[in-house]
């Protein structure tokens, strides 16, 4: 068996980021400053690092940021207030709330507090509804990353069976809506699996394309895959490495060593979906900023 194709996200992410950098400069020439407001409510260092990366990337591209971090044990009102203050701030052109939020915070309420026009992650009920209805205002960064990666490597979706491990509203459901939509990059038959799925292996084995977003390292190994499957591992879980001084390794859900035999293509973790998610997010920041300023027409096409 030949080695699987590595579905690296970096090169495409770099190209996408270059378009963002040009568009930031163009917007600034029109006196519009793209500004991302973020809300993070967690004590988890891995989640904090994902947020750090977003701010670093924005800074490197000329996107201003306003960061509100709330301790995980603070009253839920602190989270709602943070979203409301960014909502009311006219300098903030884009808004991102990182999930998961603590259990005592009402996520649906937070979703409703984000203004649809500033939403960069398809987080609001209106934007999620528009996506499902086939008229997206904004495509969530991770789902966009998966679709872009499949298109970049000419992985056909039309008529094929895509199995997604996950049923959350941030990754799995929007991705299922996109891949099953009528038209280019869609037309797939999509199955969502979750913890109540009775026989996960029966589903993963018949997938043409398997997308995993469970956040459980080792959940899928080679014995659960069909011959020639394309594996897209969205998960990014930090596990302690042998080197006790390091902050740990980032791993996906799929045991890459045993998946190599059956898979025809597989994403590396890190270096697969992650970099493209970041690039898609900053793309969305520029797009919603340009749209709100009536400057859509000056933004470069991808
Ligand atoms: N690389 C990137 O761009 C991104 C990576 N991530 C990563 O993706 C991972 C998932 O994140 P997130 O969506 O927040 O996680 P959630 O916990 O919200 O969702 C996980 C989903 O996987 C399902 N699941 C979990 N365990 C199993 C199992 N044993 N069998 C079948 N289904 C299972 C859950 O089912 P149920 O609903 O029944 O609980 C749930 O639907 C994390 O590692 C996160 O860091 C997230 C966003 C972007
Ligand atoms: N509303 C919401 N939307 C999200 O999209 C969202 C979220 N909440 N909560 C947290 C997860 C996680 N996430 C990642 C983004 C980029 C990398 C990424 O850049 N990964 C790099 C390396 C990262 C590193 O070095 O630590 C890679 O895989 O190569 C990873 C994970 C988005 N998430």
Automatic annotation (TrEMBL):
Keywords: Amino-acid biosynthesis, Histidine biosynthesis, Hydrolase, Methionine biosynthesis, Multifunctional enzyme, NADP, One-carbon metabolism, Oxidoreductase, Purine biosynthesis
Any Pfam family the entry gives: THF_DHG_CYH
Domain Tetrahydrofolate dehydrogenase/cyclohydrolase NAD(P)-binding: 140-289
Record-linked SUPFAM superfamilies: Aminoacid dehydrogenase-like, N-terminal domain (SSF53223), NAD(P)-binding Rossmann-fold domains (SSF51735)
Transmembrane segments: none
Pathway the protein takes part in: One-carbon metabolism; tetrahydrofolate interconversion
Domain of life, source organism: Archaea
Domain Tetrahydrofolate dehydrogenase/cyclohydrolase catalytic: 8-121
Record family assignment: Belongs to the tetrahydrofolate dehydrogenase/cyclohydrolase family.
PANTHER family named in the record: C-1-TETRAHYDROFOLATE SYNTHASE, CYTOPLASMIC, C-1-TETRAHYDROFOLATE SYNTHASE, CYTOPLASMIC-RELATED
Protein name (Swiss-Prot/TrEMBL): Bifunctional protein FolD
Organism the protein comes from: Halomarina rubra
